[in-house]
Design brief:
Blueprint lengths: L1 E5 L3 H11 L4 E6 L11 E4 L5 H8 L4 E4 L6 H8 L8 H7 L2 H10 L7 E4 L2 H11 L3 E5 L9 E4 L5 H8 L4 E5 L5 E9 L5 E3 L3 E6 L2 E7 L6 H18 L3 E10 L2 E8 L9 H4 L4 H9 L12 E8 L5 H5 L4 E5 L9 E9 L2 H15 L3
Parallel strand pairs: 1-2, 1-4, 2-3
Antiparallel strand pairs: 5-8, 6-7, 6-8, 9-10, 9-11, 9-13, 11-12, 12-15, 13-14, 15-17, 16-17
Helix pairs in contact: 1-10
Length: 364
């Protein structure tokens, strides 16, 4: 049984590490010959428009998945004409365009901040006046980790914002003064069976996820049920197979959808040690028609991303309950180089571990 993975970053790496214990083989496709997956598996390094290389990648592959959503759609269509691809192409197409995401949420009755398509400066001015300040101007495509977006707090900032990222295919959204950022991760197989992990509470800084805490301390059981319902409705619309994450803003007792990720997700890394079945294993189980595993948490957990610099291993591993994951990347500013998960029986012990690790990581 061989799985082909489009993309060669840390998510693909962790998929393979989960799959090897199940006897699954992997082949990866990535434009970079230095992609992290090359350290642990077979890598075809070529441009996504290289059809001959894609054919080599597909030889002997049973099913294909992808580990990030910025893959050119033409390449995925080429693959899907030859081998089954999960999650389905419609999910990838939707996730690649923030406007399509927001329209989907609205169609499904999922609360979403007010938004408007923007293609020129007059449209930006009109939309901002209609929605009301503050607002966030974003590129519809390719933005991640806080890139491709700017907050606008008054009409006097419109011209500067347009100069910063202006152009066709933008979206303007109402800025949400949220209480917390949360995410729900679900897995769904081809028969429609699904499983959902506990709601996670996330902390971002400079647009990059820094910490995930599970279960979300601020969330109620009603919010957990509501988040599952929203995620399930999206999966059912897509005929989804695999793992999907839905990011939400918690405001008072309400949840507002932010975006979906049709793949395994950074806020689910805690599941490797902290859940009965990791998100990576459940993704593989789903796309290979194997029974889904339990998503139940093994106590309390927190995950901290390692950004920019690799900390001393001995200092990290000296923290009780800490599990270190390094991705085999060279250190550069703002780059995700690894993560640390603390899993303990009670929340206070997790908090103590996070405090110690924050000092080690210099997370501030």
């Amino acid at each position: 049984m061989r799985v082909g993975v489009l993309g060669g970053g840390q998510l693909g790496r962790m998929l393979a590490l989960a799959g090897y214990q199940l006897g699954i083989q992997f082949r990866f496709f990535d434009p970079s010959s230095g992609a992290p997956v090359g350290q642990i598996g077979e890598l075809v390094a070529a441009d996504y428009n290289d059809h001959a290389a894609l054919e080599r990648f597909l030889a002997g592959v049973d099913v294909v998945t992808y580990e990030f959503e910025s893959i050119p759609l033409d390449a995925v269509r080429f693959v899907a004409e030859r081998v089954q691809v999960f999650p389905p192409l419609v999910a990838l197409e939707t996730a690649q365009d923030r406007l399509h995401e927001k329209k989907l949420f609205r169609e499904l009755g999922i609360p979403v901040p007010e938004f408007s398509a923007v293609d020129d400066l007059p449209q930006l001015r009109a939309a901002a006046a209609r929605i009301g300040y503050p607002v966030v101007l974003k590129t519809r495509r390719m933005g991640y980790d806080g890139k491709g977006q700017v907050v606008i707090r008054s009409a006097s900032e419109l011209d500067a914002a347009w100069t910063s990222i202006g152009g066709p295919s933008l979206i303007l959204e109402k800025f949400v003064a949220f209480d917390h950022e949360v995410s729900i991760i679900g897995a769904r197989d081809s028969a429609g069976a699904d499983a959902f992990y506990p709601l996670a509470e996330n902390v971002h800084r400079e647009g990059i996820l820094r910490k995930t805490t599970v279960p979300a301390r601020s969330a109620t059981s009603a919010q957990q049920a509501r988040a599952i319902g929203y995620c399930r409705s999206i999966m059912e619309r897509f005929g989804y197979v695999g793992v999907m994450a839905l990011e939400l803003f918690a405001v008072g007792g309400e949840l507002f959808a932010n975006e979906i990720a049709p793949r395994v997700h950074n806020s689910g890394h805690w599941t490797i040690e902290g859940a009965e079945t990791s998100q990576f294993e459940n993704h593989l189980r789903a796309i290979l028609s194997l029974p889904l595993g339990s998503p139940a948490a093994r106590g309390h957990a927190a995950m901290l991303n390692i950004i920019g610099d690799i900390p001393p291993r001995e200092a990290v591993l000296a923290v009780p309950g800490a599990h270190l994951h390094l991705y085999g990347k060279s250190a550069t500013e703002r780059r995700k180089l690894g993560h640390v998960t603390v899993v303990m029986a009670d929340a206070s012990a997790v908090d103590s571990g996070v405090t110690a690790l924050t000092r080690v990581l210099g997370a501030g």
